[in-house]
Amino acid sequence: MKIDKRDWIFIAIIAAVIIVFVFISGPEKTKLVPRDHNHQRFHDMIRDGKSKMDVDPHCAECHDGVKIRFPENHPAKPGAGPMRCLFCHKIKK
Ligand code: HEC
Ligand code: HEC
C-alpha cells in the first residue's frame, strides 16, 4: 500500500490528538490540601459528606491574597468571584 499525502495528513492529526491527551492527563501536579491543624477540618467536612462547593468559601478566611499571598502566576485571583480551590487542590481521602 502506498501512503500518499492525504494519508500523512490524517496520521499527523491522529498523532497530535494523542500528544494532547498525554499532555493533559499525567500525574497530579497541583499541590494537595495539606493535612495539618489549619486544614484538618476541611478533610473532616469532605469525609462527613459536605460538597466541595460548601468547603471552598472557607479557604479565603486565610488565603485572601493578603494574609497569605498566592504565587505570582496563580490561576485563580481573589476578587474575581468565588474561587473553586478544591477544583484544583485535591483533598486526598
Ligand atoms: C486557618 C487558616 C487557613 C485556612 C482556612 C486554609 N489554609 Fe491553606 N494554608 C494555610 C497556611 C498557614 C499555609 C502555609 C503553611 C502550610 O503549608 O500549611 C497553607 C498552605 C496551603 C497550601 C499549600 C500547601 C503546600 O504543600 O505548600 C494549599 C494548596 C492550601 N493551603 C489550600 C487550602 C485550601 C484549598 C483551603 C480551603 C479548603 C485552605 N487552604 C484553607 C492556612 C489556611
Ligand atoms: C484553576 C486551578 C486552581 C484554583 C481554582 C486554585 N489554585 Fe491554588 N494553585 C494552582 C496551581 C497550578 C498552583 C501552582 C502549583 C502548585 O504549587 O500546586 C497553585 C498554588 C497554590 C498555592 C501555593 C502552593 C505553594 O507552592 O506553596 C496555594 C497556597 C494555593 N494555590 C491555594 C489556593 C487556594 C486557597 C485556592 C482557592 C481560594 C486556590 N489555590 C485555587 C491551581 C489552582
How would you briefly describe this protein structure?
With 93 residues, the chain is mainly α. The chain has four helices and no strands. It has a domain at 28-88: Flavocytochrome C3, Chain A, domain 2 (Orthogonal Bundle).
Whole-angstrom Rg: 21 Å
Mean pLDDT: 89
Number of H/I helices: 4
- CATH fold-level topology of the domain at 28-88: Flavocytochrome C3, Chain A, domain 2
Task: Give the number of DSSP strands.
Answer: 0
Bound molecules: heme C
Broad structural category: mainly alpha
CATH class of the domain at 28-88: Mainly Alpha
Poorly predicted ranges: none
- Strand portion: under 5%
Span from first to last CA? 53 Å
Largest sheet: none
Describe this structure in words.
- The chain is mainly alpha-helical and 93 residues long.
- The protein has a domain at 28-88: Flavocytochrome C3, Chain A, domain 2.
- The chain is 43% helix and 0% strand.
- It is built from 4 helices and no strands.
- The protein has helices at residues 5-24, 40-47, 52-59, 85-88.
- The longest helix has 20 residues, at 5-24.
- The radius of gyration is 21 Å and the shape is elongated.
- It starts with a helix and ends in a 5-residue tail after the last helix.
- Bound molecules: heme C (HEC) (2 copies).
- One heme C binds at residues 31, 33-34, 36, 38-39, 42, 55, 58-59, 61-63, 68, 85-86, 89.
